[in-house]
Write a structure and sequence with these properties.
This protein is of the alpha+beta class. It is built from 8 helices and 22 strands. A hairpin with a 2-residue loop joins strand 17 and strand 18. The protein binds 1-hydroxynaphthalene-2-carboxylic acid.
Length: about 350
C-alpha cells in the first residue's frame, strides 16, 4: 500500500485501472514498493527452539513406521513456525534431523543443493561422498557439496542421528534443482575411508596432476572431525574473548580460505562460564546446535534456556546475545556465505 492517503475519486479510478490491467498481467509497483524495498530486513522466519529429546522421540516412532530405504531419507524437517509448509527454517535454509538405524542404507543420489551434516547422536555410521567414506562421530561436520554422489549407511549396533543443513529454499528460489539416482544404492568404495582428511586435512595436498589428487581442486575436504575443532576452540579459549562472539572459529575450505559451501557458512563458538556476549545482529539467518553446556540465548525480547543438544533458529536481523552458565559450546550454520557472494551481508554490533 502507498502510505499517503489519496482522495476517494482518485483511489476509485486507480482501483478500476488495476482491475483493467489484471488480464494483461500488469500490476502497479507503487502499491508494493515500500514492502519490497524495506529499510531493514523483514524476515518471515521467527526465532524458535527445539528440544532434541522431543524431536528424537518422534524420530524413533518414525523408525518403527518407515525404513530408511522406503523413505529414501528418514528425516523430520525443522519447520519454522513463520514458514509453514515451506520446508524451511529460515528464508533461505533448510534443517532436518535424520536417523539411520543399524543395518540400514540411505541410497545414493546427487543433487544441486549443497548439504552439511552435524552429528547429534551415535558413532561409526558413514556417509560416502563420491566414492569416499567419512566415518562419523558425535559433533563431526561432514559436507556434501553440490552434485556429489552421496549415500549413508549404519553398520553399527546403535541408531545414528544427525542434523542436515541444506540450501533448499535458495535453490528453489533460483528454480535450479537437478537430481539423479542410480540403480546401485551403495556406492563402491574407491579409496580408503577418510582418505581426503589425511591428504588435505593438515595443510597438505597431493602434487597437482598426481593420481592421488582425486578430489576437486577447489573443494578437497569434506570431513571436519569434532576432536580437531574442539581442540582448536579450547586453545583459543585460553586467550581474550571477542565481546560479541566470545571465542568463535569458522570452518573453512582449505583451497581458498572461504566458506565450506558456496551458500552456507559454518562456525563454532565457546562462551566461557559466567560470561555473556554483547548483542549483535546480522542479515544472515542461522541455525544453532548446543554442543555442550548450559545458558540462555536472548533473541530480541525472547529468552531461550539452552541445554545440551538443543537447537534454535536466529532469523535475519534478530539481535542475539548469549549467556553461559557453564562453558557453552555452539555449532551454527547460516546463509552468510551466499549473502557475501551476492554483496548483501551486513552486521551490527550493539
Ligand atoms: C538429502 O539429500 C539428504 O542426503 C538429507 O541425507 C535431507 C533434504 C532435502 C533434499 C535432499 C541426505 C535432504 C536431502
Amino acid at each position: 500500500m502507498i502510505s499517503i492517503l489519496l482522495p476517494n475519486d482518485q483511489r476509485e479510478q486507480l482501483d478500476q485501472l488495476y482491475a483493467a490491467m489484471r488480464p494483461d498481467s500488469l500490476t502497479p509497483l507503487w502499491e508494493v514498493l515500500a514492502a519490497l524495498v524495506s529499510p531493514t530486513p523483514n524476515s518471515p522466519a521467527i526465532a524458535h527452539h527445539w528440544r532434541f529429546g522431543d524431536a528424537r522421540r518422534h524420530l524413533m516412532r518414525a523408525g518403527d513406521l518407515i525404513s530408511a530405504e522406503q523413505a529414501e531419507r528418514r528425516v523430520l524437517i525443522l519447520e519454522n513456525p513463520g514458514l509453514p509448509g515451506e520446508s524451511a527454517i529460515t528464508a533461505s535454509l533448510y534443517a532436518g534431523l535424520q536417523m539411520i538405524l543399524p543395518g540400514e542404507v540411505a541410497p545414493a543420489h546427487r543433487h544441486t543443493q549443497s548439504a552439511l551434516r552435524f552429528v547429534m547422536e551415535g558413532e561409526g555410521a558413514y556417509t560416502t561422498v563420491d566414492g569416499e567414506r567419512a566415518v562419523m562421530r558425535p559433533f563431526d561436520l561432514v559436507l556434501t557439496p553440490s552434485w556429489q554422489w552421496h549415500d549413508h549407511g549404519n553398520e553399527t549396533a546403535q541408531p545414528m542421528i544427525w542434523l542436515d543443513g541444506l540450501d533448499i529454499p535458495t535453490v528453489r528460489h533460483f528454480a535450479a534443482s537437478f537430481a539423479e539416482k542410480t540403480d546401485k544404492p551403495v556406492q563402491a568404495r574407491l579409496v580408503e575411508d577418510d582418505d581426503s582428511l589425511s591428504r588435505y586435512g593438515r595443510n597438505l595436498r597431493p602434487l597437482r596432476g598426481s593420481v592421488a589428487d582425486r578430489r576437486p581442486a577447489d573443494r578437497p575436504l569434506f570431513h571436519y572431525p569434532y576432536a580437531d575443532w574442539r581442540r582448536s576452540l579450547a586453545d583459543m579459549a585460553a586467550g581474550m574473548p571477542d565481546p560479541h562472539l566470545a571465542h568463535a572459529l569458522e570452518f573453512i575450505n582449505p583451497a581458498d580460505g572461504g566458506s565450506v559451501l558456496p551458500t552456507i557458512a559454518a562456525q563454532v563458538q565457546l562462551v566461557p562460564a559466567g560470561t555473556a556476549t554483547r548483542p549483535r545482529r546480522g542479515s544472515d539467518g542461522a541455525v544453532y546446535v548446543v554442543v555442550e553446556g548450559r545458558g540462555t540465548a536472548r533473541i530480541d525480547d525472547r529468552e531461550i534456556i539452552l541445554l545440551p543438544r538443543d537447537l534454535f533458529v536466529l532469523p535475519s536481523w534478530a539481535t542475539l546475545s548469549l549467556k553461559a552458565e557453564t562453558d557453552l559450546v555452539l555449532f551454527s550454520y547460516s546463509d552468510r556465505a551466499a549473502q557475501e557472494r551476492l554483496e548483501l551481508y551486513r552486521e551490527e554490533r550493539l
